[in-house]
Design goal:
By secondary structure, the chain is an alpha+beta fold. The chain is built from 19 helices and 36 strands.
């Protein structure tokens, strides 16, 4: 079937194919140097020129060749401007016998090769024959008829018993796709041949030398003189029209019963698409002129074939682009279609034929049509993630991608995967079911190559009986044009997914903004409510000392809850750090002994419920220690925490160096909070030991309430920094006789703030609306102001602008705290979180004037 050259298997990847230094008979060869000195000749030159071959070496060519022919040769050589070009002369007279010769001339290295073989007297116009042949080709309606007509035309022109159109597959194997033959010799149509029948090196040579002829498999090759030149090189006969072929290939043809053969290359898009393979069962020698006509026909055939294939691909890809536009337009109007596998499957399958579609997006999957089982689809996606990212992947054998794919091959044997995300994660996968077929081979394809007796060399296959192989577990392969369409669809799907992702991100941002606004509003109201409650308690207390002590206790507990609320709402009602809670309690209620509270532990976050509960617990422990324990004297409190093997948080409170401790004589509300809050509210454990040398309390908070920050650098020891305390003595000189404008829309909260400012020695003018505040500024001169930002349905920013113009210092107050939205010109102003306390007002004054 194919022509095999002599191949050195050990060097075939590094060196070009080695050609035999011999030509076929009849015909002769002369190699001349560029100054027309004979360098080599074929041994049969004696028959033409009457001289011994060795005697001709080194003599001038004009001594033996007619002047007219020499002139024509010089002209033809001038046309050899490109590599691998061969020029032709027909019906030339060389000797005295009157026999016309057909001549070919080409370059081989630095020598000119002149080949001649017996021809026929000059005939008619060969171009007319080619035009007629092409006209019949152009009238064919489909590609199969096109192939068959090409084989018929070549057989008509050359007269071989059998002419086949042999097409190469991507693997290098070949198939007879069309045939024209004389009756009674059987058919090779549909037979397959393994890639080893025509090795890679031979296929490369077919692209350079388009016509290869063997006139008689029993003829003896004629050697070249000298066989090796002075440089030790053989003559490169790659472009020779007469060169002999490997005896292996001769044996190959004899095994098939073929006596003569000819092949014409079909080159499409600069690649070897296939061959016109001609067989004859007796010797046959078409003239060089006829072969040249067939070569021209094959070139025209290749051009027509390339045009047809490109037109088919262009039409197919145009339809696919229309489908891509349809997909984009449909999803633009209804994005839920992307989650409909049946609709998406119908769209994609109309562009790329498939039996089923699987969709995998963000770990969610959906199916349409014939697909693998769910778990096997997961395995396929995992395998796809291990391949090169961002490229369409196709296979006709899923069993090569994952193990045990034969179980579902009847539903899905091949796939084309379209990645639709920037990273290898999301896919649309087209599946094709198993294509059970019987492939007809010309002999057993599994043993096409053996080692011969003379070392590693190709040997011909001895049996050409039809060998049938059942192929299972494979699907119809996806074509190159289908892969290109898949790339187009991938770009469309990614555009759709990215656009939907952008829209979803914008919607999430809007939703987050709305959520933050609602949370801020809720926090504002909660803080105001806590401020009102504190104000009501403070304003309602009588002169009774016991009642005042009670009010002080309740006020401290409410303030502890307010501080905890501030902490957990700073991160939108999320977990808050335990260390911050301890710092806040130490700063607010043990400022004079703050450095005596030493906390040790790795960074830990408590969820909002646990944070509020522990705020009350720590508040009670700090308050009791300040009154009766180690913080009332020169002692210390050591707080440490850790996580146990179950992930629960274990927190230990240990007082040392204080006065002797005795258990409380009565069980008050504070003791109840310490003992029962953690077990009751959090499902944990609490134990307190009133040892004489110091109170020891241990709490276990279940792991579900505990988390760790994303970045954690190990345990830390925290000693809270000094701060102004609500418990420290009021400095009556802090605002000595200063005139203060207080703008606050809640009467109770305003009264509470007035009391604090009064204790600092200030004179306070209070307004609940912007209009009332402006009236005060029209009437009185103030030293500084405190402005509540939100005044019902108004704000205090207009008052702030006026105070700025007047040069009066001020700070804002708000229940929104850190989330207060200030105008650009007031972004640098201090904002005090409500409720008002001695601590936060004093700190703000200190920051403003200090």
């Amino acid at each position: 079937m194919a022509e095999l050259d002599k191949v050195d298997l050990t060097n075939c990847d590094r060196e070009p194919i080695h050609l035999l230094g011999a030509i076929q008979s009849p015909g002769f060869l002369i190699a001349v140097s560029t100054d027309w000195i004979i360098a080599r000749v074929s041994r049969n030159i004696r028959d033409l020129l009457g001289h011994d071959p060795e005697a001709l070496i080194g003599t001038p060519l004009p001594d033996y060749i007619p002047a007219g022919l020499l002139h024509d040769l010089r002209n033809k050589i001038s046309y050899l401007s490109e590599p691998d070009m061969v020029e032709r002369l027909f019906a030339c007279q060389i000797g005295t016998s009157g026999q016309p010769y057909d001549v070919a001339v080409h370059f081989s290295g630095n020598q000119i090769i002149i080949e001649a073989e017996p021809g026929m007297p000059a005939g008619g116009d060969s171009t007319s024959a080619v035009r007629a042949m092409m006209s019949r080709l152009d009238r064919t309606k489909d590609i199969q008829t096109f192939y068959r007509e090409g084989a018929r035309q070549v057989r008509t022109l050359l007269g071989y018993d059998r002419v086949m159109v042999y097409k190469f597959a991507g693997s290098g194997a070949g198939e007879v796709v069309a045939e024209a033959c004389k009756p009674g010799i059987g058919s090779f149509l549909g037979l397959h041949y393994p890639a080893s029948d025509i090795p890679r090196q031979a296929r490369e040579l077919y692209k350079r030398n388009l016509v290869r002829v063997i006139r008689d498999v029993n003829s003896q090759p004629i050697g070249i003189v000298p066989e090796i030149d002075a440089a030790g090189q053989r003559l490169d006969l790659s472009l020779s029209i007469l060169r002999s072929v490997s005896p292996i290939h001769i044996e190959y043809l004899k095994n098939m019963g073929v006596a003569a053969s000819l092949s014409i290359s079909i080159v499409v898009d600069d690649e070897l698409w296939g061959l016109f393979a001609c067989h004859n069962y007796s010797p046959r020698s078409p003239t060089f002129e006829r072969r040249s006509v067939c070569e021209l026909f094959a070139e025209m055939f290749s051009m027509r074939l390339e045009a047809r294939e490109r037109r088919q691909i262009a039409d197919y890809e145009r339809r696919a682009r229309d489908i891509s536009d349809q997909l984009l337009g449909a999803v633009a109007s209804d994005e839920t279609l992307l989650n409909d596998p049946d609709w998406l499957g119908d769209i994609l399958v109309s562009a790329i034929p498939a039996d089923g579609v699987g969709i995998w997006i963000n770990g969610n999957y959906a199916f349409s049509g014939s697909t693998p089982p769910t778990e096997d689809f997961r395995r396929i996606v995992r395998a796809l993630n291990g391949l090169a990212a961002g490229r369409v992947y196709t296979t006709d054998h899923i069993g090569g991608l994952i193990e045990d794919a034969g179980r579902f091959a009847d539903a899905a044997a091949g796939l084309l995967a379209i990645p639709i995300s920037r990273s290898p994660r999301d896919y649309v996968v087209l599946f094709r079911s198993e294509l059970k077929q019987s492939v007809r081979w010309a002999g057993d394809p599994h043993k096409p190559v053996e080692y011969g007796p003379n070392g590693p060399r190709l040997t011909p296959r001895e049996s050409f009986a039809e060998w049938q192989e059942n192929v299972e577990g494979h699907a119809e392969p996806f074509s190159a044009s289908e892969v290109r369409v898949a790339e187009t669809l991938r770009a469309t799907l990614i555009e759709v997914v990215l656009r939907l992702a952008d829209e979803a991100a914008a919607e999430r941002r809007q939703s987050n903004a709305r959520q933050e606004m609602l949370i801020a509003e809720l926090n504002h109201r909660v803080r105001n409510i806590l401020g009102v409650i504190r104000g009501l308690i403070r304003q309602s207390q009588p002169d009774n000392e016991e009642v005042k002590e009670f009010v002080k206790l309740v006020d401290g507990r409410i303030h502890a809850l307010a501080r905890a609320h501030n902490q957990i709402t700073d991160d939108h009602w999320g977990p808050a750090p335990l260390a911050a809670l301890i710092d806040a309690e130490a700063a607010a209620f043990a400022a004079s002994r703050q450095s005596a509270i030493i906390s040790t532990g790795s960074p830990i976050l408590l969820n909002p419920q646990a944070y509020s509960t522990m705020a009350l617990v720590i508040h009670e422990l700090v308050t009791n220690s300040t009154k009766y324990g180690s913080l009332s004297g020169d002692g210390e409190v050591h707080i440490n925490w850790r996580r146990d093997h179950a992930g629960d948080l274990v927190l230990v409170w240990q007082e040392v160096g204080g006065p002797p401790v005795s258990p409380p004589k009565r069980k008050g509300f504070g003791t109840t909070i310490v003992n029962r809050s953690v077990p009751y509210d959090l499902g944990g454990k609490a134990r307190i030991d009133y040892a004489p040398d110091g109170v020891r309390a241990e709490f276990c908070i279940p792991a579900r309430h505990v988390s760790e920050p994303k970045s954690y650098g190990g345990p830390e020891i925290r000693i809270p920094r000094a701060a102004v305390s609500s418990q420290q003595a009021i400095d009556p000189e802090l605002l000595d006789r200063k005139s203060i404008l207080l703008v606050e829309d809640s009467l109770i909260i305003a009264l509470d703030a007035e009391d604090i400012l009064d204790r600092f020695g200030a004179s306070v003018a209070t307004a609940s609306t912007p209009e009332a505040a402006h009236d005060i500024l029209d009437r009185d001169q103030v030293d500084f102001a405190i402005l509540d930002i939100n005044l019902g349905d108004q704000t205090s920013f207009g008052i702030a602008d006026r105070l700025t113009e007047l040069g009066v210092p001020f700070f804002f107050a708000s229940g929104y705290g850190e989330q207060a939205n200030l105008p650009m010109e007031h972004r640098s102003r201090i904002v005090v979180q409500k409720p008002y306390t001695t601590h936060n007002i004093a700190k703000a004054i200190d920051d403003m004037f200090g």
